[in-house]
Specification:
71% helix
Length: 402
């Protein structure tokens, strides 16, 4: 059965948007223009494909149309001094015959991480350009107003164009300087993808998790001995290995402690173990190694039958000493809770700033559990209701409402 053109276009946008923008941007030097050219090509596809049929290689067709639009735009501007130099290499860059066109996303990641780009815009810019997330979706993840995020993205893209920042992987010294920003973006993308992991049939960004692991692997091929790159990829693998067990066959949410380890991806867990072992041999402890170690301690029950909460508590203390976030602080409180130190867990939550926890769902879930242990059922219900309102997944809402 032939797939409708609109569904093919939706699939291309979902799976290949970042690769297409990265490929175009590497040639145009302008992210915003490349996005506009791709948008124009998608609009033309919506008009042409229903009549002429979907081309054999949709991505290659879109690249060819976007490239022609770019050349036409240069000609219309009549900037001869720039166009003659710019048009020649563009004319020499043929759209690939296959959908397997070069993946330039890692180069674009490092362009977005350039030190002349506002640090607060670097991760959002990477999420927007490489993975195709909208300003609204990114703003939600960063807890800021969508219009402010939109302005931040526009300024960052303009800055790349004005400075002529090259779309390439820098030399070793500059590579290390920009590494942390790139790792943060991949980590953020994975988190969004994981939080969107819901039962089949619900509209999600769940494929972001696999894309993030892929980008992590590409980065690892460039820095095979970097402990933090190893730590990040290991962390993502530990988490992603439990994906299939997160929901039952009937679509019901299954929390970590109730998951059957037999349903986890043991091959992926073994690979994560190997990467974390390699990282630990470098004797350079960092944030992502600590995060990976926490996940390792949670998945070790596939061997021992139990989670080592004491080890997790120690790891969270180490993480919070140097890399504290609202997530890691709530994680520490959760470790205290599972060690039945309920008063300490409540005290740890009470120390968190209200502004940081208002929209953070795990905080309210843990708060509800602590209130239940203390016998304060009205407060427990209020906290649980707050948690329900902070999730978009019907399956998780149903679980929290039980």
């Amino acid at each position: 059965m032939e797939i409708p053109p609109s569904e093919v276009i939706e699939r291309v946008v979902r799976e290949s948007y970042g690769r297409l923008v990265s490929y175009l941007s590497a040639n145009t030097g302008d992210i915003a223009d490349s996005e506009a050219f791709l948008s124009d090509a998608l609009t033309k596809a919506l008009k042409i494909w229903p009549e002429s049929g979907v081309p054999k290689n949709p991505e290659a067709w879109l690249l060819a149309v976007a490239r022609r639009t770019h050349i036409d735009a240069i000609r219309r501007e009549r900037i001869h001094s720039r166009a003659l130099d710019y048009l020649a290499p563009m004319g020499a860059v043929e759209a690939p015959e296959s959908s397997e066109f070069p993946d330039r996303r890692v180069q674009l990641l490092f362009a977005c991480a350039h030190p002349d780009i506002d640090p607060s815009a670097q991760t959002p810019l990477m999420l927007n350009t490489i993975l195709g997330l909208t300003a609204e979706r990114i703003a939600s993840a960063f807890l800021i107003h969508p219009s402010n995020m939109g302005q931040r993205l526009v300024r960052a893209k303009r800055r790349i164009r004005e400075l002529g920042i090259p779309f390439q992987i820098p030399e070793s010294e500059l590579f290390c300087q920009r590494r942390d920003a790139v790792l943060e973006a991949i980590y953020a993308a994975f988190g969004i993808g994981w939080e969107s992991n819901v039962p089949a049939g619900e509209n999600t960004h769940a494929d972001l998790a696999e894309e993030s692991i892929y980008l992590g692997r590409v980065l690892l091929s460039q820095m095979p001995q970097d402990p933090e790159v190893l730590g990040l990829v290991a962390f993502m693998m530990y988490v992603h290995a439990r994906r299939a067990a997160r929901f039952s066959t009937t679509g019901h949410f299954v929390p970590l402690l109730e998951q059957d380890p037999k349903d986890w991806d043991h091959e992926l867990l073994d690979e994560a173990d190997r990467l974390l072992t390699r990282a630990s041999k470098r004797k350079e402890i960092g944030r992502f190694q600590l995060l990976a170690s926490i996940q390792s301690a949670q998945t070790v029950r596939r061997h021992s039958g139990a989670i080592n909460w004491e080890a997790i508590l120690v790891l969270y203390h180490g993480l919070n000493q140097r890399f504290a976030t609202v997530g890691s602080l709530v994680g520490l409180a959760a470790a205290l809770f599972h060690l039945e130190r309920y008063e300490q867990a409540a005290a740890a939550l009470a120390e968190l700033p209200k502004k940081q926890t208002d929209a953070y769902q795990p905080y309210w879930v843990l708060k509800a559990l602590i209130f239940e242990k203390s016998g304060d059922l009205p407060e427990a219900q209020a906290a649980r209701s707050r948690a329900v309102g902070l999730t978009e997944s019907p399956a998780i809402r149903a679980f929290l409402s039980m």
